[in-house]
């Protein structure tokens, strides 16, 4: 996701860039086009005015070598062109016949009879001129002095027939000023964009700080921290969000507190009669031992098993609902894993399942009893899922300042639909399950700053418990 600063920069700069860029480019193109057109019309008009003073018949009498000999006709014609060139402030004037051969050239110094190479670029315009129209070249060209020039043309007539063309070259120096104006406009646009960028960054920072604080508060609430209040914000709109988030946090905290009180009350109310049932069923069992009431003893045994099951439900219920503070202390990882497995040795042997423990040495800062309870739950699930003769592997290893514990079994695996809900409270597929074992285990692991994950396939189910901190190796 893009940041607020980036979005504000885009919102500030993109319209300005488009507006200034398009406006500047359009204005420059339009001004250049108008100036070029006016220059072309002016040059073609000068060419027409000069051509009207030229006799087409006399022009055609000029032959190669006349410029060398300085014939009278050539001198008169070049004098006329030179006077017109100086009066108009033009760079060059020259006359060509319909074959494109020079008859007189003032300012360009091409000899009489030579082909004018400049005409090659203006063939389309010369076609119009030789048909009796005035025209100007469509392109500017750079002279030997590095300046831009444009050529205007007009037909030279002999009676009604076009016998040649008058060409005049004029400076387009004003395009330098136009270019400088364009550069100035570009520089001003760049400065404006820089100022807008600075404004956008400052605005983004002013908005980002309270939004970041609000985001941090929302993340704390999402992680379950309902005790830390949401700080107020001075900005009006963000302040409203902060107040509403604080109201929501207070409501969640109140609901959470009420729920915990309710669960604790329910558990307390259930535990009292369960204690009485357990006490009196024990007394009844002792009384029946003196007789031969085998069937009664069987019922009493069942009552005791149900009482034990209900007692476990109450204990799991309380353990899940209660916020248990961690009593952190150094814990040896191999001892943690082997201790959890020893508590299930009898159950595993009864089912014919072998427990294999392999733990790399590490010293953890953790609540040993709570982590043991979480591990016992995972190992017990693995034993229950295994077939007689199978093995449950419990391994621990250190990697990248984290300690990873895996509990692996070769049971039938967990269906994908159940995998998504396996850590939901009270979700269970067992008849005598409470549905709180795995959620409680994950809660304990996360309280240590770790994570508990599951990967399962037929014949390979693995619970991976990762703790974030390994203080030292023993």
UniProtKB/TrEMBL annotation:
Its EC number is 2.7.13.3. Residues 205-257 form the HAMP domain. The keyword 4Fe-4S does not apply. InterPro entries: 2C_sensor_his_kinase, HAMP_dom, HATPase_C_sf, HATPase_dom, His_kinase_dom, HisK_dim/P_dom, HisK_dim/P_sf, Sig_transdc_His_kin-like_C. Keywords: ATP-binding, Cell membrane, Kinase, Membrane, Nucleotide-binding, Phosphoprotein, Transferase. GO terms for molecular function: ATP binding; phosphorelay sensor kinase activity. This is histidine kinase. It comes from Hyalangium minutum. The lineage of its organism: Bacteria, Pseudomonadati, Myxococcota, Myxococcia, Myxococcales.
